[in-house]
Amino acid sequence: MQGMSSLQAIRDALEQSPDNVSLLLLFGHTCLEQLHLEDARESFERVLALEPDHSDAQLGVARVLFLEGENSGAAVRAERVLQQNPTNAQAHLLLSRVHLAEGDRPKAIEHFQSAALIDGTLSDPALERELGQTVRDARRTSPIPAPESPSPEGMEEGDTSPEFVDDLMDDPPYDWRPETFYAPGDPGRFGVTFADVGGMEELKEEIRLKIIYPLQFPDLYKAYGKRTGGGILIYGPPGCGKTLMLRAVAGEVPCNYLSVGLHEIFDPYFGSTERNLHQIFETARANAPCVLVFDDLDSLAQDRRNVRESQLRNLVNQFLHEMDGMRGENQRVLVIGATNQPWALDPAIRRPGRFDQAILVPPPDEPAREQIISLLAKDKPISNLDAPALVEATVGFSGADLKYVFDRAAEMTLSAAIHSGHSVPITMDTLLAVARGHTPTTRTWFEGAREHAQHATPDTYATEARKSLGAPSQQQREP
Hints:
This protein is an alpha/beta fold. It contains 22 helices and six strands. Strands 1-3-4-5-2-6 form a six-stranded mixed β-sheet, sandwiched between helices. It is elongated, with a radius of gyration of 28 Å. 38% of the residues are buried.
């Protein structure tokens, strides 16, 4: 009865979200467990209609065929999965069962050993008994070398574009090599776009105004005397999506994208840190139009009034000098900096021509939380999701807090599924229980901002933090 109620719960969830791939897969696997083969096949085939190359769904159909006695059809499906991904252990395991059913024991052992070498955590007691060896035995005695993962097509996030390297090699002054550089055609840059970031519409539009629209409507910008590039500073509590937004910019802008880590700048040798920073800006200028991104900006542009080390003061001076070099008509570089501690920045960073546009990224409001919840729920098997109720229960939550709610609920549900032996969807009650028991991590940041605001001078970021918190200004407090 428990299995039937679990299946019905998933079926009810699918009525609300019929194209949810995760729910379809969960329903298909649950049907397989209970030998409802027709329902399982229909569910997996619906996934394939949405995503034709989905390997899990392909294997699901193959398992249905195998259970129906159609060994050749099951083998064809499993081999198709291995053509796409030779390191799919489940496909090897299924082929081992198929060959054993057809009396080809050597082939069955070969695929079993391949599966064991790929994934030592596999467990199939029935197959192990029939083959006379365990996964551990297969890993220890197999003469088959472990298969290598195929090289991914395109560049990974940390790789350098080949065309970009060639350009730099032809230009001797630039001996610095970026770790994260995306040219317009790099496939790796489109993993995250603005559509994956809930809320922050003001920031998205500001980025479009400074780097996307100028490239789309150059004549219009010329008519208004506006140029490409500039500086944008985004600040706010941690976990509210600043770093995610920086990644999304790479997938959104139609130009070069250069993101710099602190380890690429700091150098123990005197003068090398300033030189590295100069070469970074020179690289961005040489590849304009370009977006240049600095996360944790407060580490590079600390308030010089609070810095004693001469090297750090020189770094701030160099950074300000490089920002001044972005004012020329032909620079076409947008510099985006992000920080959790805006009050720690040098005040000169806000002068016109530098980071003159500062945007607070607060915890998401109700529409943004609803959008984030929809994004987080998209790939999870959730029944009876009530987004408005979850929005109401998560006031003050950051994006990271919301992700924790879903991850923790998934862990609790997974634990229950393991102990019960049946697949179950994540329920709304579980999500609400986790949300109500979690304290928003943004609270500490706002308490710190409020503390800085009380001792702030009028030209500091803490004053802006006071305004964003709704606290009275210095003039309002005076009689």
